[in-house]
Amino acid sequence: RKAEWPSWSPPAAMRRRDPSLPEFMKGGPKNPLGARALYLYENGRDTLFRIHGTNEPKSIGRAVSSGCIRMHNDEVIDLYGRVALGAKVVVLPADAPPLEQPYPDMVSQR
User: DSSP characters for 80-104?
Assistant: First the structure.
């Protein structure tokens, strides 16, 4: 699933860690999911992991969410326009060596 200016319902675990979080937040510039969101599914089930923009760019690259991957809004807008529903997502650990060649099923349009 993909969404433009997605709404946000923090997972229960996140709300337990921070009770000040709202139960629901409408999409828009103040929403933590930013301008676009890609919802990651496995075997047809929502994993609750997302690739999304953020209204807090300083949080990018830090473990501040429930497993989501945050991007600058302009970058996630670009990705959103280029990725197809059902695309395979490969997440590498931060200490992984650089890829010499992309995965065989990856196609770059740049």
Answer: HHHPPTT-------TTPPPPSS--T
Residue from 21, 25, 60, 68 carrying the catalytic annotation: 68
Task: Answer yes or no: 72 catalytic.
Answer: no
Per the annotation, the verdict on 2 as an active-site residue is no
Query: DSSP class of residue 8?
Result: B
According to DSSP, residue 22 is labeled -
- From first to last of its 110 residues, the chain has per-residue pLDDT tens of 999 999 999 888 889 989 999 999 999 999 989 999 999 999 999 988 899 999 888 888 776 667 789 999 999 999 999 999 999 888 877 788 877 766 555 554 44
Which of the following is catalytic: 40, 52, 65, 70? 52
Place of tokens 């326009």: 81
